[in-house]
Write a structure and sequence with these properties.
Layout: E1 3-5, E2 10-13, H1 23-34, H2 40-61, H3 79-83, H4 87-99, H5 105-125, H6 152-160, H7 168-181, H8 185-190, E3 196-197, E4 200-204, E5 210-214, H9 217-227, H10 252-265, H11 274-287, H12 292-299, H13 304-307, H14 312-323
Antiparallel strand pairs: 1-2, 3-4, 4-5
Length: 331
């Protein structure tokens, strides 16, 4: 039985992919993508959370074993039934996610965001409910993690490994983009030939927000070398910048596999991913003197607070300065 997965947790089994959704849930998912600009991946995660939520409520109400949750039909969920949902029901669901499903604080926080968004839509946009039970639902606290990144020497070794690859110009260009532009893997996949305008590249980030980033010499030279060897695109629609040997647009998983192969050939770092290359880029730029606002634009962060996680380097630098003080270790 194949599993349809996300970066957070397992989504639907193959047999559940065609789950029948109630109309109100379908309407909400359309609203997410067409009005709020959420990606298809985010939409699928919201769908999964809400299907799980309504199945859980039905299981509790009808005394169905939790083990049979995936078999529960929710196509008959109506707005009248939704009006009966209370804050206590939401708490019970979150307890189930934590205790029985073993969801991390991050996974539970996503579910809270899903529920809040759904009930806000019902009350604010559709005027279908008078009370929003998710108004007082708290988001689990998530400890802020220090970004994992490569140091300069490791990054150089990693880049050098691309020369050993079969499609070295293409792989070199993609890795150079990761490490110089701080680009997300989904952004790299969605780049088109028309995204390039001279020395600038237009990147479509989260929420379909566009940002224009300058390509430095390394990026520009890598791009020109790759374009000479680029495969012919065999699909429809806009011409992707990066084309696989099969003539298709790259998927996130394919690029992650290339990163894994390069890592195995050189550094063999634990769980090196395209996102950690993005962290590396941001960290090295900050260490080289980039200010937070410039870094925010380059990375496409909607809030500067997100960018500020890279200021953890200051602590390392301060410690190094203190250790190198000539008056240190006098005795």
């Amino acid at each position: 039985m194949r599993l349809i997965t996300s970066s957070v947790e397992v989504l639907y089994t193959e047999e559940e992919v065609n789950v029948v959704l109630p109309k109100i849930l379908k309407d909400f998912l359309v609203y997410l993508t067409t009005i709020t600009g959420k990606s298809q991946r985010t939409r699928k995660e919201y769908e999964y959370d809400l299907v799980l939520f309504f199945r859980f409520l039905k299981a509790i109400e009808q005394d169905i074993a939790i083990a049979d949750l995936q078999k529960i039909n929710i196509s008959d969920v109506t707005i009248d039934k939704i009006k009966e949902i209370t804050l206590e029901d939401l708490y019970l669901f979150m307890e189930y996610c934590e205790v029985q499903r073993g969801n991390s604080p991050a996974a539970r926080a996503r579910k809270v965001a899903t529920l809040k968004s759904f009930f806000k839509y019902l009350k604010g946009k559709r005027r279908l409910i008078e009370e929003n039970p998710a108004d007082e639902l708290e988001t689990p606290k998530i400890g802020r993690k220090t970004p994992v990144y490569l140091n300069l020497q490791e990054a150089q070794q990693f880049i050098a490994a691309t020369t050993m690859q079969q499609y070295s110009e293409r792989d070199y260009c993609m890795m150079i983009f990761f490490l110089n532009l701080g680009i997300r893997v989904t952004e790299l996949c969605s780049l088109n030939l028309q995204s390039i305008q001279g020395r600038h590249i237009t990147v479509v980030g989260k929420g379909n927000k566009e940002r224009t980033v300058f390509m430095n010499e390394s990026c520009y030279e890598a791009l020109q070398a790759y374009l000479l060897t680029r495969h012919t695109y065999k699909g429809d629609g806009a011409e992707p910048l990066f084309v696989s040997q099969k003539g298709t647009r790259f998927a996130r998983q394919s690029i992650a596999k290339i990163v894994k192969q390069l890592n195995k050939a050189t550094l063999n770092k634990e769980k090196l991913t395209p996102h950690k290359l993005r962290h590396t880029s941001a960290t090295l730029m900050y260490r080289a003197g980039a200010d937070i606002r410039s870094l925010q634009h380059i990375l496409g962060h909607s809030s500067v607070a997100t960018t500020q996680i890279y200021t953890h380097i200051e602590d390392e630098q301060i410690q190094e300065v203190m250790e190198n003080n000539p008056l240190n270790n006098l005795r």
